[in-house]
């Protein structure tokens, strides 16, 4: 399960290896994967769309909306960046804490939603335990400035 509160999980060397070996395949299709995840998230959490005034108002053409595509890419690129910092824990924490500050003060996102999006992400990429830990770290740190 993905956690978003409490002690920060630690990635073992084995977890990092599992992520490093599988991520390139997933990231290869980052635009498509990111879009599938974001669309499912918006479908399951209709209220979340209010946070994105740039998205078109009608649900039927969301997958063709360039703003949706751009946002989907930003999310998966942030995950990619986090993976790149797995061996630099201090830098990884700082990066995600800064992202947390933006989500809380600038974007005013409901912090419960990080876990919702992450769960869809992990199931979309059929991520195993190592990815659950990675997303638990992401969710916990994205909540840190709330
Ligand atoms: C913006 C990543 C979850 C709402 C962003 C940005 C990144 C990002 C990189 C761009 C920040 C910038 O402008 O510098 C992530 C990651 C998430 C996540 C990695 C979780 C894994 C969520 C969730 C919501 C959300 C669950 C809920 C609605 C927003 C909004 C913006 C934003 C509203 C600003 C959009 C705009 O430019 O108008 N996010 N995000 N994010 N995120 Fe997230």
What's the name of the CATH homologous superfamily?
Answer: Globins
Number of strands: 0
Secondary-structure element order, N to C: HHHHHH
* Sheet/helix structural class: mainly alpha
CATH level 3 topology? Globin-like
Question: What can you tell me about this protein's structure?
Answer:
The protein has 146 residues and is mostly helical. It has one domain (13-142): Globin-like. Helices cover 64% and strands 0% of the residues. The chain has helices at 13-27, 30-44, 66-84, 89-106, 113-124, 129-142. α1 (13-27) packs across α6 (129-142), α2 crosses α3 (66-84) and α5 runs antiparallel to α6. The protein binds protoporphyrin IX containing FE (HEM). Protoporphyrin IX containing FE binds at residues 48, 51-52, 54, 74-75, 78-79, 99, 102-103, 107, 109, 113-114, 117-118, 138, 142.
What is shown here, in short?
64% of the residues lie in helices and 0% in strands. The longest helix is centred in the middle third of the chain and has 19 residues.
Give the helix/strand layout:
Blueprint: H1 13-27, H2 30-44, H3 66-84, H4 89-106, H5 113-124, H6 129-142
Helix pairs in contact: 1-6, 2-3, 2-5, 5-6
This protein binds protoporphyrin IX containing FE (HEM).
Q: What key attributes describe this structure?
A:
mainly alpha, Globin-like, 6 helices, binds protoporphyrin IX containing FE
